[in-house]
Specification:
single chain; alpha/beta; Spore Coat Polysaccharide Biosynthesis Protein SpsA, Chain A; 8-stranded mixed β-sheet; globular
Length: 290
């Protein structure tokens, strides 16, 4: 199976981007296509075997990754953050390309391989990077119901069948939306601790606009994908979770403003999860209300 790796950059982290590209040397040696997407920025000079192109404006993480997939030719697409990198494997035979291609070739219903996110020193990163509720042991592989968009590999045909990431989300929770649609289509998502991506342990809340987009996109997520009773429960649950985080009053107002914005926006196609998919997710330990 042919692999492609998409790296999205806004041009503001040149040293980190250079590190990310350098970490794909082994992938490129194995024939993986590497594409750097300049999201409203000119990509810097890159090695000759790396493809680059520029989007006219910053369209966000979701639409930017969709554009990368459009330019890719691989059967499996790896996504890498420009401030992340793949570590050198301890065993030269345990190369990432061979492992990922083998996993997808062996299981036609595998849609997403969620990578283990490690800290810069190779140790554990934030618990939020482990895509399951019982996140205490990041070294345990298991079926999952979501994944981290910058640390994963996705089967191209499944990605296209599910419609890719929802571009209107800009960033935040676009992975959950895609994951739910993939599960509804009968595919599987697997958290694979043997595949590793390194990333600084920094929460998304550091980004400007986080609280607004968190409230807005959770509302869009519920409106697009959940039966109405579950949608109400999902949003009430996340309101309680957000309040429990004890954000500042300004942050909470921003979250509620995003919630109202999500109620006003056109959520796009509404395709509520079936009872069978909801039960399947519940059996995996994460029903779509948390």
């Amino acid at each position: 199976m042919k692999l492609s790796c998409v790296i999205l950059t806004m041009g503001n982290r040149p040293a980190e981007l250079a590190r990310a590209i350098a970490s794909t040397t082994g992938l490129r040696a194995a024939g993986t296509q590497v594409i750097v997407v300049g999201n409203g920025a000119d990509p810097p000079p890159v090695p000759a075997d790396v493809t680059t192109f520029r989007l006219d404006r910053n369209v966000g993480v979701a639409a930017g990754r969709n554009a990368g997939v459009d330019a890719a030719t691989g059967d499996v697409i790896l996504f890498l953050d420009d401030d992340g990198w793949y570590p050198d494997p301890p065993d030269p035979e345990a190369d990432l390309a061979r492992h990922v291609a083998g996993r997808f070739a062996a299981d036609p219903l595998l849609a997403v391989l969620a990578f283990r996110v490690a800290g810069p020193d190779g140790g554990p990163a934030g618990r939020w990077h482990v895509p399951r509720l019982r996140a205490g042991d990041p070294l345990r592989s298991a079926p999952a119901t979501t994944f981290s968009g910058g640390a994963c590999a996705i089967r191209r045909t499944a990605y296209l069948e599910a419609g890719g990431f929802p571009g209107d989300f800009f960033y935040l929770h676009e992975e959950i939306d895609l994951a739910w649609r993939l599960l509804e289509a009968g595919y599987r998502i697997e958290y694979d601790a043997a595949t590793v991506m390194c990333h600084p342990a920094e929460p998304n809340s550091r980004h400007a606009g986080f609280w607004r987009l968190d409230g807005r996109n959770r509302t869009l997520l519920a409106r697009r994908n959940l039966p109405w009773p579950l949608a109400a429960l999902f949003l009430l649950d996340w309101l309680a979770v957000t309040a429990a985080r004890q954000p500042s009053a300004a942050a909470l107002r921003e979250w509620l403003g995003g919630f109202a914005e999500g109620c006003r926006m056109n959520p796009g196609p509404r395709q509520p999860l079936s009872a069978a998919t909801i039960w399947r997710m519940t059996r995996l330990g994460r029903p779509p209300v948390i």
